[in-house]
Amino acid sequence: MKVSIDDLKKLREETSAGVSDCRQALEDAEGNYDKAKKLLTERGLEKAAKKEGKETSQGIIESYVHAGGKVGVLVELRCETDFVARTDEFKTLAHEIAMQIAAMNPKDVKELLEGAYIRDAKQSITDLIKLTIAKVGENITVAKFTRMQLGE
User: Fold this and answer.
1) Total count of domains within the chain
2) Are 82 and 20 members of one domain?
3) What pairs with residue 62 in β-bridges?
4) Cβ proximity of 31 and 62 under 8 Å
5) Residue 111 belongs to what domain range?
6) DSSP state, residue 2
7) Across 85-105, average pLDDT
8) Closest alpha carbon to 142 in 81, 96, 53, 75
9) Per residue in 79-117, is it b (16+ CB within 10 Å) or e — as a string?
């Protein structure tokens, strides 16, 4: 089956999946864009499940200070390699998690991971992390975080 180049580009932009993965999903979905996108998500989550338990010894510490300077967060986000720690996807995830902590004030990592994502209540932070794992191909964990609020 011939795959539309426009659909291939659009699918790649929306999912950040590889060109060959996008092409395969479109072929498997017989050109149906929505079905192909769903297939990519499912396959990505399967990849993420396989990465679970792998050692995460690299990563970054992300800081976030909420507007007005009254709430600040430091979060340690880990991955398997320094290469992934430098990617935009990983850095964006770290920033989103730091904002989540500032907004929701979870008591620990477990509560953070189970909480609904502030930008999309249908997703948990665990779901957000799994989607990033599927994109970057490495295990990702939240090691720890600290949230400070003026006057606390």
Assistant:
1) 2
2) no
3) 75
4) no
5) 58-149
6) P
7) 96
8) 75
9) bbeeebbebeebeebbbbbbbbbbeeebeebeebbebeb
What are phi and psi for residue 53, nearest 5 degrees? 90, -15
User: Closest Cα to residue 56, out of 28, 78, 31, 40?
Assistant: 78
* CATH number of the domain enclosing 137: 3.30.479.20
Whole-model pTM over 0.85: no
Half-sphere exposure of 3 (CA within 13 A, CB side): 21
Query: Rounded CA gap, 93 and 77, in Å?
Result: 9
For 97-150, the pLDDT digits (tens) are 999 999 999 999 999 999 999 998 988 999 899 888 888 888 999 999 999 999
User: Domain check: are 84 and 140 in the same one?
Assistant: yes
CATH number at 43 reads: 1.10.8.10
12 exposure class (CB count in 10 Å sphere: 0-12, 13-18, 19+): middle
The answer to whether 93 and 79 have CB atoms below 8 angstroms apart is no
Task: Note whether 23 and 80 are same-domain residues.
Answer: no
Specify whether 20 is located in the same domain as 70. Answer: no
Which amino acid, residue 108? D
For the chain, where are the E strands, in sequence order? 58-65, 71-79, 116-117, 120-124, 140-149
97 in the same domain as 25: no
